[in-house]
## 1
Amino acid sequence: MMKLIDNASGLADYTAATFLRNPFERQIVLSSIDVPTRLNRVAAFLAAEIDSNS
């Protein structure tokens, strides 16, 4: 599946859908129009999830 991703927007969407457990966080990411903002939100949510599991 990762081979089919050819842009940053698709990477953000795939990562959010696959790795973010919280549906509210996924919705925030997927509804962000600006790609850099979307990527930053994915990174922030993933970092928070990693921190909470440490």
## 2
Amino acid sequence: MKQPGADHPIDIEPAEDWVRVLWGQHQIASTGRALLLREASYPAVIYVPREDARMEMFEPSTRRTTCPYKGEAGYFSLVGPDGQRDDNAVWTYETPHPAVAAIAGHLAFYADKVVILVEPPAEDVAPEPPE
């Protein structure tokens, strides 16, 4: 296990905007509670709480990878009602290392598999729940 530091910083903060995740014609997540993880020189990653995702479209995968800074990642494939699927399109850290414990119970998405929309929250409109 490696600790984030000056040579490999990791910062996690609440996303200020509303986040929607689209997969094909399906909205698979919608939240005002996303987290933004910035790690070293990598592009920032948005993590969405599972409670704000349509988990009936997520099928657990057997794929596992390990990050020395975050821990073991598990994966989900996306499966649509009409049979379409995208294998290992989503990852999650069930029990992340203590330095990144905030991302437990959250989902991250490969940008080439989904469209992630980041929108300012409407002040006079209630947020739309996941479909």
## 3
Amino acid sequence: MERIDLDGSELEFRRIPGLAGRPWLVFLHEGLGSAAQWRDFPDRIAAGARCPALIFSRHGYGQSTPLAGPRDVDYMHHEGLAVLPALLDRLGIERPVLIGHSDGASIALIHAGGSGRAVAGLVLLAPHVFVEDISIQGIAAAGEVFRTTDLAQRLGRYHRDPAATFRGWNDIWLSPAFRDWNIEEYLPAIAAPVLVVQGVDDEYGSLAQLDAIDRGLPAPAERLVLADCRHSPQRDQAAASEAGILAFLRRRVLA
């Protein structure tokens, strides 16, 4: 992993080479994710699309600087409107394809609709644009798992401070102040093509998220709704997710 000092933190990242002139694929991980937890999924997508790719761990995740305190309600706004633009500028990346999972998908939407910067496309895995009851129930259940199982130890394989990583995600989502969190205002400004990938059995969100995205975008998103799939399509249905993403990229972005 390479490292970069940005926004008062040291962030870990890695780059995958690709063909010159192809857009960069920028992978944005979920609320308990990191660069390493994508495993080889970015490598397979980058190889299939013949595009360069960037994978990084946000502040508080992976081997990047751990959190020193609780997150604010607008933490995803800060990532999409301040940190991601600064990182792309430092690395010389323009007009990327943003591939985000869960929190990362929400950050991708905020960036695409609110930063004033062009993106070539969006691939959204299990995105959230508002808070549902199922989201709160799933996150509360995750808190019980963290307290009663070896989840902290398992997260410690990837994160420098697994307790801070978990609490930073779990506590803010369960905060009463977060219940009104909503990013639908950013959708009308997104002109790039969008693919949404959602599992039917997602424990953190429903197809109502996709409906809200379609209502807000200038043109409806393409959908890939997968059976026998929970919150992580890239793991639960890896082959179908990879095939759908590559077909979308070839048809809508790389053609």
## 4
Amino acid sequence: MSQPDLYALLGVSRDADAETIKKAYRKLARQLHPDVNPDPEAQAKFQEVGRAYEILSDPQKRAAYDRGGDAFGGMGGGFGQGAGFSFTDIMDAFFGGQAGGQTRGPRPRTRRGQDALIRLEVDLAEAAFGITRELKVDTAVICPTCAGEGTAAGTHPQTCETCRGAGEVAHVQRSFLGEIRTLRPCAACRGFGTIIPDPCRECSGDGRVRSRRSLTVKIPAGVDTGTRVQLADEGEVGPGGGPAGDLYVEIHVAPHDTFTRHGNDLHCTVSVPMTAAALGTVLDLPTLEADVVPAEGATTDLETSFELDVRAGTQSGTEQVLRGRGVPGLRGGRGDLVVTIAVETPTRLGPREEELLQELAAIRGEEQPAARLKPGSRKGAFGRLRDAFNAH
């Protein structure tokens, strides 16, 4: 019985490479599969094509066939009787090279690096008006010795002899369906398809080393604690000298001695003497801009102070709102400055001071002041019930 021409069955030349043979088989399998083409002749042709691919896809079996050996090696014929075609390859033909979620081909040595995160503490004024800082970061960078290739000088990665560069090896298991072939990452090359026989001594073949470097980061005006500034491509360089990830600078704003921040508003408390609160006065107070240190040789037009008009008779706890004196917003605009006035009552009086205050009390008829109760926030059960009825 004459040997069948396996190359003719697949429609390829005798010098076709493995990829060409695989593509030809997939095309025929999609056309002839019993689920697609119920014609008995097509089913017989489907089995022949499967047996042909089983031989030509295996380098050893293909070499034996090219030397004139038995094409099927006594495997018999028929699906489920050792037909020789792979269940994985059938799945490949219909699902584009992925059987059971497996990815075909070697995995790349070059991959994107991870993102990096560092924390930076800034003053309130720096967070409010922005600043440029020089940072020292410790990240993975491209190996200067091998330029990311991972090999020693004068050498290059070599194709893995075990998987012949495929990055995967086939494991055949017999079952009632025939031979089921699964692909697993090659243990010799760890799925890369290449082996580095002489790794770079600097990076041990990884293509990257850790190094400390200087970096300039511009902190925009209006940032707050928790804000992250993204620096693209400034993170960790990837394995094999792959592209770097991003670097994120997380801001932490240190507490201020005078101002407290609430959103984009600033709050502060100003203490004034009892006499100044009674008579009224004008105070000259520093703004947050007074903390800004201009760059060497730079000029600034920031207003470093403001006038606070304390009107006569100002009570302790009075708030004054200065519009547009707060923190600039990241998306524009600016918050307010809220100043709370605390009236200071003297705790120690000299004889003359005490005499004058007693005279003032007599003039105002406050020598024996009558206590005046003001409604508070706490109410009894009867009061709450009364308010509920009044509300209706």
